[in-house]
Amino acid sequence: MSLRGGHLLSLDTVSVEEILDVLDTAESFVEVHQRTIRKVPALTGRVVASLFFEESTRTRLSFETAAKRLSADVISLAVASSSVKKGESLRDTIATVEALGLDAVVLRHRSSGAAEQVARFVPHVHVVNAGDGQHQHPTQGLLDAFTVRQVLAERRGVTGRETGAELFRGLRVLIVGDVRHSRVARSDIAVYRRLGAEIRVVGPGTLAPDALAKWGVTVSHDLDEVLEWADVIGLLRIQSERGSGSFVPSLEEFSRHFGLSTERLARVSPDTLIMHPGPMNRGVEIDHAVADAPQSVVTRQVANGVPVRMAVLYLTVAGGEGR
Amino acid sequence: MSRRVLRGGIVVGPSTSQRGDVLIDEGRIMAVGENLDSGGAEEVDCTGAWIGPAFVDLHTHLREPGGDAAETITSGARAGVVGGYSALVAMPNTDPALDSVPVVRDVLERGRASVLDVAVCAAITVGRRGERLAPLGDLAALGVHLFSDDGTGVANPQVMRRALEYARPLGVRLAQHCEDADLCEGGVMNEGEWSLRLGLGGRPVAAEEIMVARDLDLLRWTGGRLHLLHLSSARSVSLALAARAEGLDVTFEVTPHHLVLDESACADYDPVTKVHPPLRGRHDVDALGELLRDGRIDAVATDHAPHTPESKDRPFDEAPAGLLGLEHAAALTHEVLGGDRPVDLFRLLSRTPARIARLHERGLLGLSAHGGDVVAGEDANLVVFDPSETWIVDRARLQSRANNTPYHGRTLTGRVRHTLVRGELRVREGDLQ
Ligand SMILES: [Zn+2]
After folding, report:
1. What is the distance in A from the centroid of ligand 1 to the CA of B236?
2. Domain count for chain B
3. B14, B85, B7: which is closest to B42 by C-alpha?
4. How many angstroms does the Cα of residue B224 sit away from the middle of ligand 1?
5. Are residues B72 and B402 in contact, defined by beta-carbon separation less than 8 angstroms?
C-alpha cells in the first residue's frame, strides 16, 4: 500500500522516497502558512472525518486545521466523550460514520492496531493514523523529521528539499525515557532509521528493554553517559501512572536519573536539538527552564504539525494528483 | 440401527495398519477383515482412506450454557463430527460455570441430544474463581473424570494443592491452564520482538513454564493426576516429560494452532489470532513439531473456542481470546506429522485423549467407548480419513456457529471422509448427514 492515494498507518512500512515526498510537500505548505490567504483548494469537495476515540485536543486541532487549509469539509467526532463505549464493535462505529460519505478518516484510538483494522473495514476510505495505542504516531514521527531537517538546512542556508535525506546520514539521535509504551518512539525510530540516522535509546531497564536492540538501535540505561553524544535529543512524555512503582519507583527518581535537568543541559552543545512531542511534564522528563532553552525546538514541532498533516492528507486523499 | 460395511480402507491399529473392511451393526463393530461379505449391508466407500477410532477432543469450549450466540452444544457437536470426532469434552468456562451437579447434568442431557458423545470437564473451584473447591466428590460420583478452571488457571498454589489432595482419592484428573496471571497482566500476545514492535502487551513464555513447574512440584508432593492443557513451549513439554520419567502421573496436550502458527500471525492485528496461551515464537513452534514427530507429545486437543463475529470486530487488545479448532485439527496434525503417520495420528487424536478422559471405558457418564481398537465387539465410533485429499478452508462453510478460524484460505491436505458415532453415519463424503 503506497502512501499516495492510500493510507498512512505506520512508519514501519513507509519508504525513504515516501518520507521525502511528505517532507518536501510539507515544505511547500509552510509557504501557504506564510501567505495572507492560508488556504489551497487541493481537497475541495472532499470530506475528512476526525475520529478521536481518545481525547487529544492538540492533535485533533492540528489535523482539522490542516484539512481546512486544504479546503476539505471536516467532520469532527470526539468519540471519546460520546456514547461510544469500550466494548462496542469498532466495525459498527466506523460503519455508522462511513454512512456519512467520507473520503478520509483521521483516527486516534487507545488500542494498538486500530488504524490497520479500520483500513480493512473501510478499504475505500483513506485512513490516517493519528496515534494508535502504544504502536505508532506516524505524523508525529514525520513532523519530528521535518523539524530536524528544517533547522539543520537553515543552518546551512539551503532549503530542506535540496538536502533530501542527506542531513540525516550519520545524525546522532538520542531518544530518552519510556520507549516501551511510546508510540512516538516507535514512529521516530522508524523514520530516523529509514533516513540513515544513528539511534540510541536510554531509559530504565523496565522502559527501555534490551530487546529494542533488534530494531538496530543501541540501548543504554545511563543518560549521563550518552548525553553529549547526541545531535538530537528526543524526550518522551512519561505517563504519571508509570511512576506508581510498577515500572519506576517514582517520577522523582525517574526525573533524577532520566530527566533533562538544567545541570544536564549545561553539558549539551548549543548545536544540539532538544525535542518533545508534548504535552510536556515540566519538572519530570524536562526541567521548567530547559523547555525554553535556545536548543529547544518544541514550538517549531507544534507549528510544523499543520503543514506536515496537510502534506499527509493531500498525498493520501488526493494521491498528489496534478502536482 | 442399520448394517454398514466400510469397504476397502486401511484399518489403523495401535501399532500397524492393514487393508480391510469393517462390518458394523447395532452400533458395534461386528467383523474386521478383507473382502467381508456384507450380507446386504449398506456399502460405504473407504478406498485409499484410513479407518481408525474416531477422534476425542479433550478441550472444547461448547459455550452452553450462557454463550449460545457463539456456539451451542448442537452446533459444536456438528463441527465435531465434521472434524472426525465422536466425543468432545466440554470445558467449564460457561455462564454459569460447570461447577455443580445440576448444570453438569443439563450439559450432559443436551449432549445426549447431539450427534456425538459429550463428556464434561467440570470446574475445580466454585465459579472458577480460584477460591473454594467445587463439589468434586459429587461430580466424580456422577462420572465426571476431568476438572479444570480453564479459561484461566488456578492461580493460588494453596488452592491447587488442596484440589490435588482432594482429587487424588477420587481417582479424577485435574487439568490446568498454565499461565501465571500476574506475569500475563495486560498481555494479549506472546511477549517478544513482535509484541514490542506492535505495541501490544506481552504474555511471556516464562509465565507458562513457571506455572507448569509449580504444578509439577505440587503434584510430586500431593500425588494424584494432573493434565496440562495446551502446552505452547518446548520447555513446558520437557518439564512434563521429566516429571513423568520420575513416576508422576502427568499428561499433557498441545493444540494444532501452536503447532502451525507463530506470533507473526498477529502482525496485522486481526483478533482471530488472539489466543491464550498466545501463538509463540518460531523456535517454540518448530520445537513442538519436532517433539510431535518424535512421538513425545501425548495428545493433540483443539481448545476450540468460538466467538461471535462482533466480538472479533473489536480492537486486538479488547477482543476475546480463542479460535476455532474442531473442523481442521486432524488435517493440521496430519500435516505436522508429515503426511504418512496413521498410527501416530490416531494415537494423538483418539487413543491417548480417550484414555486421559477415561472415555475408552464404555458407560462413563452413560457414553459409549472411544479410542478403542478397530476390532469386533468395540463400539463403532470410527472415522475414515483420506490422507491425500487437498481442500481449502472457507470460513463461510463451517458447521460451527462462529467463524473465527485463523485458517481461512489455507490449503490443507487430509480430510475426514466419513464419521460414525455408535454406528450411525454422521458424516458421509465430508458432508454432515
Ligand atoms: Zn485454556
Report:
1. 15
2. 1
3. B7
4. 21
5. no
Return the exposure string of B266-285: e unless at least 16 CB atoms fall within 10 Å of the residue's CB, then b: beebbbbbbbbbbbbbeebb
Residues A188 and A296 in one domain: yes
C-alpha cell at A20: 521525502
Q: Does A35 touch chain B (CB under 8 A)?
A: no
| pLDDT tens per residue across all 433 residues of chain B | 579 999 999 999 999 999 999 999 999 999 999 999 888 899 999 999 999 999 999 999 999 999 999 999 999 999 999 999 999 999 999 999 999 999 999 999 999 999 999 999 999 999 999 999 999 999 999 999 999 999 999 999 999 999 999 999 999 999 999 999 999 999 999 999 999 999 999 999 999 999 999 999 999 999 999 999 999 999 999 999 999 999 999 999 999 999 999 999 999 999 999 999 999 999 999 999 999 999 999 999 999 999 998 888 899 999 999 999 999 999 999 999 999 999 999 999 999 999 999 999 999 999 999 999 999 999 999 999 999 999 999 999 999 999 999 999 999 999 999 999 999 999 999 999 9
Smallest Cα distance from A211 to chain B, Å: 7
N- to C-terminal Cα separation, chain B: 15
Contact B310 A87 (CB under 8 A): no
> Measured on CA atoms in the order A143, A149, A152, A156, is the torsion positive or negative?
negative
Domain extent, residue A131, equals: 11-136+303-317
Q: Provide the annotated active-site residues of B.
A: 303
Distances (CA, A) of A146 to A31, A102, A128, A194, B178: 14, 28, 18, 14, 48
User: For residue B310, which residues of chain A lie inside 8 Å, CB to CB?
Assistant: 89, 91-92
Determine, yes or no, domain membership for A26: yes
The answer to whether residues A128 and A43 belong to one domain is yes
Domain count, chain A: 2
Pairing of strands B431-432, B424-428: antiparallel
Burial class (CB in 10 A: 0-12, 13-18, 19+), A49: buried
Same domain, A142 and A132: no
- Report how far residue B354's alpha carbon sits from residue B370's, in angstroms, rounded to the nearest whole number: 6
Q: Is A196 on the interface with B (CB under 8 A)?
A: no
At B147, list the grid cell.
476438572
Judgement on whether residues A101 and A163 belong to the same structural domain of the protein: no
Domain assignment present for residue B150? The answer is yes
In this structure, what CATH number is given to the domain that contains residue A174? 3.40.50.1370
Give the DSSP letter string of B8-25: EEEEE-SS-EEEEEEEEE
Q: Which structural domain, as residue segments, surrounds residue B214?
A: 54-366
Q: Which of B339, B422, B419, B342 is nearest to B383 (CA)?
A: B419
Q: pTM for the complete prediction?
A: 0.94
In a domain, A93, yes or no: yes
